[in-house]
Amino acid sequence: MSKIFRSDTVALSRSRRAGLLVIAALALTTLGGHFVVRGSGATPMLPPPAGGGIDFASPGGSPVKFSGTLDRQAVLLGGDRQVKMELVLAAEERSGLHPARTPTDFVLVLDRSGSMDGVKIEHARAAVRELISQLAPEDRFALVSYSSGAELTIPLAPATPEVRQRWHSIVSGIRPGGGTNISGGLDLALGLSGGERSLRARRLMLISDGLANEGDPTIHGLSSRAHLAAGLEIVVSTIGVGADFNEFLMSAVADAGTGNYYYLNDVERMAQVFAAEFEATRETVATALAVRIVPGDGVRVIDAAGYPLEQSGDATVFRPGSLFSGQERRIWVTLEVPNGSPGERDLGAFTASYRHGGADRVLEFTDIPTIACVADQEQYYSSFDKDRWARSVSVEDYNRLQQSVASHVREGRREEAMKEIGEFEAHNSQLNEVMQRQEITRKLEQLQELRGEVDDAFDGADQLSKRKQLSKSRQAAGLDGRRAGSKRLQTRSQGGSR
Description:
The chain is an alpha+beta fold and 498 residues long. It folds into three domains: 5-96 and 289-376, Immunoglobulin-like (Sandwich), CATH 2.60.40.3670; 104-282, von Willebrand factor, type A domain (Rossmann fold, 3-Layer(aba) Sandwich), CATH 3.40.50.410; 388-497, no CATH class. The chain is 37% helix and 27% strand. The strands form five sheets. Strands 7-6-5-8-9-10 form a six-stranded mixed sheet, sandwiched between helices. β17 and β18 (359-364) form a beta hairpin. α2 packs parallel to α7 and α9 packs antiparallel against α10. The longest helix is centred in the C-terminal third of the chain and has 25 residues, at 386-410. It starts with 13 loop residues before the first helix and ends with a strand.
């Protein structure tokens, strides 16, 4: 890519790029394997990281910063093909005593099915009333409630003081009963957008405590609705309450809607989640965030912190959502690099696009180092940044393991869960004999706790309930662990997180 929209960054020429790589190659000799490349001549070179890490970034001058780090400089001939890149997307901090707030459209889609009766609906009503009290006159609010059908309980309108008083009374009158028609609630809420983009920051919060059993109950159908919302720059976040909802459906809807997923075993924390999501919305700096990777020859994008990967021509795209003031999101991207013959491998082109102030902007990494394919194991291991490798295992790999174990437990696959734990332990124990990182030693010790929880979930009385609880808590913990910085507020509940 030779040009960047709106001059957020300017790509370097091929000759300048080659010159920088020559300098970097010399650094490998003169600095004992340390290798640092930054985005442009205007960006100061950082001190070389311990262990041979590689840093790169887009130039400055943008309200969003885009940078990356590789955990190694080589793959092994005929052996390990994976390279991990930690991408960082950070929004500028809005400063001042009274920082600017973005006018907000905040829509709640609330489950009022029969299973919400009792404590759940009481806390839900209290949380909605508390949220309404936080709204400013320039904000707009709507409430869709659903059971077997859906109704517009509070139409979208500015939150003036007089209207807020009336809204409090309406919320107090919500009564549960009937089935769970999530699709009906989403359809009604999406109809409020008019099918158009807006300069207002818009967020939709879906709350459910049970399985979708009326309307369209499919993951594909519900995720498609959330994807449609994201195309209109409406962020869709979800909250699963209690033990009987489908955590994989609710997290898939949040992913498609570029929002956050929360598991609340303790419904008293619902007000905290509402407040955090609302505050993040009205402090929005960038919307429609998307990372586009055009891989080099033979390179494949395997994963990006579990975000859905889209293919667009020769590019792989994932969409982390929006950024609020001061937010820094860290996303590990796993790449598979050809290792059939020695030589250098070009990783490809990496860009981040977003919208700010109604305008589209694009950032690009101007200089990404190549990855070597080497036959010598000592040379291969010396190419690692050991601390960053340890962080990638502790943050990305371990949390991905938690999610996989959660899926096996939910489906009653005890042996498969134990097998994956064992494979993770064997692989990383062997690598850590070389890397010698205490962080990994501690993480491997935590596997015994995970094994114990799996054993307990398949032993004794009330196994179904224990499996549901374990699946939800570990799946939520794994998802949040892989997406550092994605939420304004991390909440914790007994037996689970988020």
